[in-house]
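Thread title: Can someone regenerate the structure for this chain?

I was given the following input by a collaborator and told the matching structure tokens would be attached. They weren't. Posting the sequence so someone can regenerate them.
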Amino acid sequence: MLDSAATPGGCWAHFSAVLVPGYRELQPGAAVEFTAEAGHQDGYAFRAVEVWPTGELPVRGDDQVAAAASPAYRSTFTVTFDGDGDGDGDGNADADADADARQTDTGGAST
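Best answer:
Regenerated them for you:
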């Protein structure tokens, strides 16, 4: 909640309106600058459109926010396959496919 003479009764602010690099966070009691619009939100007559700490420049744009280092978000993706997909579990799909082709070419005789 933001308190200002321009927003009597307080101003509601969602974290997505906070314009800082990295993790979108403001310190309780800290001075901020903001723009607001009239609109009833969670019992407040105003809601913040943009909020940033006093004395700092607002950081706008996804590329600027994403470029800032932050422990708030980190994602990894790992794909692990069981075996090689042919059911024998040796982890060697190419050699198995070649052996299968040779067996087919020679009428099923092993080489």
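The chain has two helices and four strands.
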